[in-house]
Amino acid sequence: MTDATADKIPVTVLTGYLGAGKTTLLNRILSEPHGRKYAVIVNEFGEIGIDNELVVGADEEVFEMNNGCICCTVRGDLIRIIEGLMRRKGRFDAIIVETTGLADPAPVAQTFFVDEDVRETARLDAVVTVADAKWLAARLRDAPEAKNQIAFADVIILNKTDLVTPNELREVEARIRAINPYARLHPAQKCNVAINEVLERRAFDLDRILDIEPEFLTADEHDHDHDHEHDHGHHHHGGLKHYHDEEMQSVSARLEGDVDPDKFMPWINRITQLRGADILRCKGIVAFKGDPKRFVFQGVHMMLDGEPQREWKTNEKRESKVVFIGRNLDEDEIRTGFAACAA
Amino acid sequence: MAEPSSSLTAHVRPLEAGAQVVRVAFLAGSPALALADGIVLIGEGDAQKRVAAHPDGAILVARAEGSRLVTGGDDGRVVATSADGTVNEIADEKGRWIDALTTRGEAVAWAAGRNVSARDEAGVVKTLTGPTTVRGLAFLPKGYRLALAHYNGVSLWFPKAAAEPTGLDWKGSHLDVLASPDGRFVVTSMQENALHGWRLQDSRNMRMTGYPGKTRSLSWSHDGNWLATSGADACVVWPFKDKDGPMGKPPRECGVRSSRVTQVAFHPRALVVAIGYADGLILLCRLGDAAEILVRAPGDGAVSALSWDANGSRLAFGLDAGVAGVLTLPA
Where are the alpha helices (H) located in chain A, listed in sequence order? Predict the structure, then answer.
């Protein structure tokens, strides 16, 4: 997804469970004086309060590809609409796809891996998830869709922080981090985040996979000390709590020194084929023996995209790192498997 | 790749286009261009008429029939533009995109999402809701019957009958649909870089695979015996003469180059196919001996439209980049 990205239309995917505030965010993006024109693909027509934008109604049509890959689902409507929008090329700058509250982001992302025509004209910019600070913890327990949306996200807007205590906020942040420590997390009220934190993230550009360190600190702390303090006898010990989500986790593995491409390529292909249904996303930077360039890759379920990227700098440690986010991941399998790829 | 040694490039006159060309046609002898920016251009040179068929809209689908060009836009309208430049609105789907469109004589059918409408010669409109979004439409040559391409197959619908449509099932997403001129076969292009066909007599399935890309341009030979297709680095031509259609027979390939074929158009009277490529080259290829004649040298990006006039003396073409022209075959 890096070839000639410059003139490709960026596509931002907006997810979030029912009532979290997706439409609020969308209206905020569209009404700010940014001078850019967005084409918006929505599933619930009529909720957008801005009328001078290019708004396209869509029925989420998720279908399986006949390529023998069981989890390879794509959004047929998206392929059709992006093809149609290209007839207006030059008349808008970017596309925002609002998914329904129960949607799995994977088919949207996979559409950009699978469809050649879509890849040629558009690029996936980021998956942005809006979460409700008050109800997210409950949804993570009872709604697998909500958990998927958090696990998949590049950017998480933790909305409605005015409805929770600082302790509750810290707790829900910790629950998010237990699932996805890599996303940018923005606490917000009425989705009041800077637009540049939501759009033009280039989260799926291979040459932007520079830093895949966990984001232990939230990106924006400004809402933490609000005054709606309603502590209901909650025991809080200060600092970030460490939760472990029983089902969805991230696993990262690091390898100092060089990696053998003849070992790594079969391994990454095998693990994403075998465990692809459970792996939501993966990415990594790898130092191949004898190769002056960094090899970068990313994947969604069973789909992988990778290429040699810029050269390692002279003062840069040749260190390889892979990250997986998924369901019931076998940490040992990933760590020992990756360790065995050492050159 | 060597370009063909003989050339007709000196017989090509440029046409003013200025925007992505969606379709080219000849209306009462005049070349016409349906442009992505909602404009229809009719005629050549100083006599060229500029018609705002879809003001502020984009043309998504278009089809020429006789002396009119029927277009469907992202403004939700279906309009017919005549050779003299008059525009008649056929339908207004209130802003819902017109995803598919077909014509036969005066009859017009269009799809907006799952909703399909068929309007007969008398102007009577019948509607049907498809199982999923309808991506392709084609009238069958016999009877007032419509084929709808959608996810997991094709539906065959008699708009004037109360009966439910009959289904031709095949798993996957079907895009364009067309019927063979003799009405024996229905063929679709698919999301999975393949064509699928059915023999209507017994609904027997035909798989036509091996394409490196999607096939979005298909054209029958004048005798109905051959189907030319885009989607490969050659024009792939399937034999349909026998009762089994192309089953068990390899397709012919013409115009093999190192560029993807984007548009194909069989000559209306001879076994010659016009082939347009992703690099802008256009050539004519004779099916019998694969002889090639150059029409346009590469440049300016992909060929997006090709069409012959009724007697096959002129070929109009258009490119994504807003370049167009007309070839007049030397007498």
Answer: 22-31, 76-85, 106-114, 116-121, 136-142, 144-152, 166-179, 261-274, 331-339
Locate A311 and state its tokens: 């050269």
Q: Is B236 on the interface with A (CB under 8 A)?
A: no
Collapsing DSSP states into helix, strand and coil, what is residue A196?
helix
Backbone angles phi, psi at A20, to 5 degrees: -75, -30
Q: Which two three-digit tokens encode residue A300? A: 């969604």
Residues 126-165 of A with CB under 8 A from B: none
pLDDT tens-digit map of B147-177: 999 999 999 999 999 899 999 999 999 999 9
Nearest one of A249, A337, A338, A329 to A285, comparing CA atoms: A338
* Average pLDDT score over chain A: 85
B273 burial type by CB count under 10 A (0-12 exposed, 13-18 middle, 19+ buried): buried
Q: What's the pTM? A: 0.89
Interchain contact A61–B (C-beta under 8 A)? yes
Residue B249 has which token pair? 């027979």
What is the per-residue pLDDT across A92-132, written as a single tens digit (0 to 9) for each? 999 999 998 888 999 999 999 999 999 999 999 999 999 99
Cβ atoms of B63 and B103 within 8 Å: the answer is: yes
Residue in A closest to B59 by C-alpha: A87
> From the candidates B22, B39, B74, B188, which should be mutated to test the interface with A, based on the most A CB atoms within 10 A?
B74
